[in-house]
Structures are given as structure tokens and as C-alpha cells.
Amino acid sequence: MGDVLRVGKKQAYQTITQAINNSHPGDSILIENGSYTEPNLLIKHPLHIIGIGFPSVENQDEKEIITIESDSVNITGLLLKNVKVSYINDFAAIKVNGQKHCIISNNQLENTFFGIFLKQSKNCIIRNNQIKGNAKNEMSSGNAIHLWYCKNIQVEENQARNHRDGIYLEFVDNSVVRNNIVENNIRYGLHFMFSDHDEYMGNIFRSNGAGVAVMFSKFIKMQNNQFEFNWGSASYGLLLKDITDSEIINNVFKQNTIAIYMEGANRVDIHKNEFKNNGWAMKIYGSSMYNNINRNNFLNNSFELGVSGRSDSNNFNENYWSSHTGYDLDKDGIADVPYRPVKLFSRIISKIPSTSILMRSLLIDIIDFAEKVNPVLTPDNLKDHRPLMKTIDYDKN
Amino acid sequence: MLKILKYSLFDLVRSNWSIAYLTFYLLVSSSILYMNGDLTKSIISMMNVILLLIPLVATVFGAIYMYNSREFSELLLSHPIKRKSIFLGQYFGLAISLSLSFIIGVGLPFIFRGIFGSPQLSNFLVLIGVGLILSFIFSLLSFFVALRFENRIKGFGLSLFIWLFMSIIYDGLLLLILIWFESYPTEKLAIALTLINPIDLGRVLIMLFLDTSALMGYTGAVFYKFFGAWQGILISLSSLLVWLILPLYLLLKYTKRKDF
Question: Potential cystine with A265: which of A240, B153, B164, B256 (Cβ 3.0-4.6 Å)?
């Protein structure tokens, strides 16, 4: 163990910069409660930086507060404030440049342009940070947690609010995003770009522009998440774009304008999810093939499914559809008639958007009913062959 | 006029029809509230009921009342009372009694569920407002038709046709037009055509206030921009008022020269 350097009004070091300059690899710097305005804190060797009672730290020019250029740096218990918006540099409260084994935990970040920014780093942990931004629009705002070219990162139990993206992953592999609460971000709650073999589970995505966007990625596991109240004319719960071989299991989608929007999504398994009170439960667009949508609950969605293009290869089986009015004579729990989740009106509305002014009109109910009795225009082979009669109860652990 | 209004109002309020109408609304709204549990959902369900039934009931009820009180009207006509006051009094008596049944029938269950303390209050008020305006418009239309045609079958037939046209056929035509002009931007056309039909207008207003507009994507945004701004609301209101004032004017003009 190294030495302990104390920073505070009555301590040996008055500023954090002094303490860092006089420290040796492996030392701990304890920062007492107070407010510190420092130049950029550049950390070049392994250190533990620990705040006591959340001392507030600011950069004197409102630029980057802490820059880490060493392995094995821990930063915990700080209150980092006010990083200026820049259109040239991605100023962050904490930036890690190409390092390993860093732990950033229990910090509070307020009004920082980018919150925690990891660049080409490996095996880091970002845990239990509370990050609150002040984003007004997409152009002039940054992401709460931003990972770029990283591997084996764990992002756990953080809270990210009011940024552009809550958590952003670009070229990030083998990482886990677990038990975070992501709210009120203007673009996406969680954003994957070109990232493979990642998992996210137990997160809550609430009232973001879109809950989660997974783009150009493979082998992503999405489990036990909640997607709630992502409501607006261009809002999604989960946006899948060019993604393959992934799993979406045990999630809850509640009151999103579009719960899942898929475009170019192939071989995705969507199992045991609950879709409740969404505008559209699913929209399957452009060349999405070989997806399995099985054993989900579709409860009270305004529209259950919208499709365009060929989508015969998507397989629906044993889902519960609350608007299904089938019967079950042999009492095996599976309705005797297949169910067609695509309503005529949802097809018309996708083709001619201005007809949406007729939504909830009596005429539409009549048309949908007529089409249900005798399908002419809706895709004939798109149906759930074994719709369930009762909602599925599954463990939500 | 006020005396006649008072008389027809009390006459109607005491009749079995109004009581049946009131109980029906009490039953429907409390069962919807009971089954949905959620105020927003209940308001949407009530919207469907209201948009379908209020015009229908107002139509049928207006025609029945007018035909039944014909002798009474003739009796009144033989007295030195202005024709205008007679018919206006009768019409407002009818419309107000319908509205009372509606307000009490829908209002009471929602009040018991605590609508006043909830954020849905404004949506609920829009719902009630649309219901009231539709009651007034459709009872006026059927009142006019019943006055115009002494043959009851003809009168009832025409009133019902007006209802059917407004609530279903018009939407069908609108859908056809929108499909026809598929390759043109038809948002503004859709708005204009919606403004003409009071039932559609009521539906769109309630939907926009309930923020269903997000469901409609880009089009919803266009609609919202129109109906959400105060000009849009003003235009919608004036279009509804035209539906009241124009038939009322025609009715009065007609009663002046009608030979009883």
C-alpha cells in the first residue's frame, strides 16, 4: 500500500493538483469536503482518489476535470461540476485515455458536457455514479457515459439523466450494462454502435427520446429491462437497426409509442416479453428476416404489429394477444384458430399516414372486423399459429 | 320563451326516457371505470361510447319528442306567443334535458373516482364539452327534420340517415378520398374534411388532448400543430358553432313560414 495524502483547508495539501504532483504510484489521495477549482487533473500513475462527503471539483476553465492516463486508477466519492459545451473537443468530467483496470464509482456529476468518457480502454468498472446533465438539444450536448473502442467494461447501477445519450457504446465488445436507471435523455437511453457480444440487463429506460437503440451490432443479449414512457412522435422503446443474432428476453415494454422497431434485424429471438399499453407493439420493416417472436404477452396495444415488405420468414408462435377473440374447444390452452396481428387499418395507416386522422373511428372498427372475418388485404401468412388463451406468467428476475 | 323552455324541460326530465338515458350512462361509465381501473383508458373508452351514442340518442329522442309534442305545439301556436319563442323554448328544453342526463350520468362516476384531483381533469372536460356540443347539434338536426316532415317514417328515416352518414359513411368517403390522392400530401385535406363533420372533429380533439397524436408519427405532428395551437382550437370551435347556428337560423326561418 502507498501513502495517504490528505487534501483540505487544514491539511498538508490545499489543492488536489499539489497532492497529485507529490504522489507516487499506488498512493491514496483523500479529499475532504469543500469546493476545489483546479486546472486539468492529469493522472499519470496508479492512484486512488477518494472524496469524503462529496467535495465538489471544478475545472478553472470549465474544461476537462480529470484526465486519466495510467492503469489502475480509482476515482470515488467526488462531486464533479460544470464542464463547458464544446463543438471541437469532447470535454468530459472524467476521461480515460487508453488504460486498463480503472474503477470509477460513487461519484456525482452535474452539468457536465460528457460525463464519463472511456477511450480505447479495457477491464474498467463504472459503478453507482449519478450523472445529471443539462441537455437542450442534440447538437450541443454530450453523453452521460461514453465508451469508445473499449473491451470488458462493466457499467453498473448508474443513474444517467438529461444528457444526449444516457449510455453510449461505439466499438465496444464483451461489456455488460447492468441495473442502471436511464431517464429523460433527449436521444437514446442506451446506444450501441458497431458493438458485439454485449449484454444489458435489469436496466430501466424511462422517458427517453428512444429507450435503447442497437445499431450495426451482433450477439447482443437484452434481458429483464424495463422500457417505459418513451412517448413522442419519433419515440421508440427499442430501436433495432441492422442487428443480428441477438436475444431479447424477459423485458417489459410499457407505454412506448413504438415498443420495438426493427429494420434489417435478422435472427433475433424475442421471447417472454411483455408489451403493455404501447401505441405499436412492434413494427417490422425492411428486410428483417428469420426472427422468432415467441411466448410474449401483447396487452392492450393500440396496434400490435406493423409490417412492410416481405416478412414471411419471421415466426410468431404461442404469444398471448389481448385482442384475440379465439376459442379453445380442446382446452389445451392454445386457441384453435390462428391469429393475425396485422390489422387492415394498421396497413392502411403505414401506407397512407394521413388516414391516421380516422383512428378510433367506428368505421375503422367495422373495416377491421370485416377483414378479420374474411382476410383479403392483410398478409395471409403472417400469423400466430398457436396463440395462447391466457397471459403467460413468467419469472421476472 | 323561458316559460316554454321551463315547461318542456320539466316535462322531459320527468319522463321515463330521460331517466332511462341517465341510468344507462351511469351504468356504462361506472362499469367502464370499474373494468379499466385507469382514468386515461376510461376516457378513451367513454369517447367511443359518446361519439357513437350521443348523436344517435339525441337524434332519436329529438324526433320522438317533436312528434309526440305536436298537439302541444299546435295548442301553443293558437295563443298569442311568438313562434320563435315556442320552438326555441322547446328545442332548448330538449337539448338541456339531454345534456343534464349526460352530464350527471357520466360525471357522477368520474367524480367518485376522483377526477377532480387528477391530471386528467382537462381531458375529461374536453370529453364532456364534446358530448354536450354533439347533444345540442344532433337534437337540433332531428328537431328540424321532425318539424319539416309530418310523415313520421320519413322524418325518422332522414334523422337516422343523418346520424349514419355523419358517424360512418362520411368517414368511409374520407378514407376513399385519402386513398385516391395517396400520392399527394393530404394532411391539410384531411384536416379540412375533418373540420366539416362534428363527430370526427370531436374525436380528433379528444384524441389530440389525450396525446394519442404521438401514435400518428409525422401526420400526428401536423395535426397537433394545427389543432393544438389556439387558432386551430378557435377554428374547431367555430366550425362546431356553425353547426349549431346555421340549422338554428334555418329552423327559425322555416317555422316563420310553415303552415300548421
Answer: A240
